[in-house]
Amino acid sequence: MQDVRTAAVIGLGSMGWGAALSLLRAGFTVSGCDVRSDVLQRFSDAGGKSCKAPSEATVEADVVFVFVVNSSQAEDVLFGPGGALEAAHAGTVFLLCATMAPSATVAIADRLEAAGMLVVDAPVSGGHAKALSGEMVVMGSGSPEAFARAQPALDAVSSKVFRLGDRPGPGSQVKMINQLLAGVHIAVTAEAMTFAAKTGIDLKTLYEVLRVSAGSSWMFENRGEHIVSGDYTPRSAVDIFVKDLGIVASEADRAGAATPLASTALSLFRQASEAGLGKEDDAAVAKVLAEKSGVVLPGMTVIR
């Protein structure tokens, strides 16, 4: 191809993996970076270039997607030893896709821009399946130049890109509110399914009724199925929502906003994490309520 496009994806977890494969399908040359050797091998097998250090991945990249877990990891992979900034050329577009506190996103963006980089605050939504199909939703904010440079890569990984402002920050603010809703919906899904089990309702039947009824939500339809099947393979882990709802609680406190439902959901996720469920699928919060209610859900063998 005459205009070969190059991209780097730092963090090949649930969402980053899907983004990297979508970029490959769109004809990008893609370097992927992850700490797990088995994931790097799978990425090489899929046609990507596997890199152990972020600096290796960004040597020739036009755009760099950062799909790590939190702001601390983002700072490490960008500015730490072997970090992406060591090898990136001026004008490279960095897409900050991790869910972070808006203030942390702005601080990281400022450092990147001071080094001559372009930045899009670009948290995403849609789950693992949408990431794999290149249909994520991007909640973006950044300069028109950054968006223009990143557009081909954004087209490859997403079905919808919202432009929420011309500076980093608003994207992370909107993602924070999305995570408030997502976390509360997961928690209430767990509560509904556990209550139903306690009263003797068949969970599969209940799920089929409710997912097409007014009480449903995207999270109920998705996580409710996990509970019915007893499948807690982590697509998004409990500890992710400990982090994300922790951001909601902190930012709400700073703004003086009342968020009682988010606080209750955060407490439930924390209980699940403290019970050793932090690495399981976030639907595993249902196990905490099941044990308190004295019921055994699918996938549970005993009540502790």
UniProtKB/TrEMBL annotation:
<protein>
    <recommendedName>
        <fullName>L-threonate dehydrogenase</fullName>
        <ecNumber>1.1.1.411</ecNumber>
    </recommendedName>
</protein>
<keyword id="KW-0521">NADP</keyword>
<keyword id="KW-0119">Carbohydrate metabolism</keyword>
<dbReference type="GO" id="GO:0008442">
    <property type="term" value="F:3-hydroxyisobutyrate dehydrogenase activity"/>
</dbReference>
<dbReference type="InterPro" id="IPR050006">
    <property type="entry name" value="LtnD"/>
</dbReference>
<keyword id="KW-0560">Oxidoreductase</keyword>
<feature type="domain" description="3-hydroxyisobutyrate dehydrogenase-like NAD-binding">
    <location>
        <begin position="169"/>
        <end position="289"/>
    </location>
</feature>
<keyword id="KW-0520">NAD</keyword>
<comment type="similarity">
    <text>Belongs to the HIBADH-related family. L-threonate dehydrogenase subfamily.</text>
</comment>
<dbReference type="InterPro" id="IPR029154">
    <property type="entry name" value="HIBADH-like_NADP-bd"/>
</dbReference>
<dbReference type="InterPro" id="IPR002204">
    <property type="entry name" value="3-OH-isobutyrate_DH-rel_CS"/>
</dbReference>
<feature type="domain" description="6-phosphogluconate dehydrogenase NADP-binding">
    <location>
        <begin position="8"/>
        <end position="165"/>
    </location>
</feature>
<dbReference type="InterPro" id="IPR008927">
    <property type="entry name" value="6-PGluconate_DH-like_C_sf"/>
</dbReference>
<dbReference type="InterPro" id="IPR006115">
    <property type="entry name" value="6PGDH_NADP-bd"/>
</dbReference>
<dbReference type="Pfam" id="PF14833">
    <property type="entry name" value="NAD_binding_11"/>
</dbReference>
<dbReference type="InterPro" id="IPR036291">
    <property type="entry name" value="NAD(P)-bd_dom_sf"/>
</dbReference>
<dbReference type="InterPro" id="IPR013328">
    <property type="entry name" value="6PGD_dom2"/>
</dbReference>
<dbReference type="InterPro" id="IPR015815">
    <property type="entry name" value="HIBADH-related"/>
</dbReference>
<dbReference type="Pfam" id="PF03446">
    <property type="entry name" value="NAD_binding_2"/>
</dbReference>
<comment type="function">
    <text>Catalyzes oxidation of L-threonate to 2-oxo-tetronate. Can use either NAD(+) or NADP(+) as cosubstrate, with a preference for NAD(+).</text>
</comment>
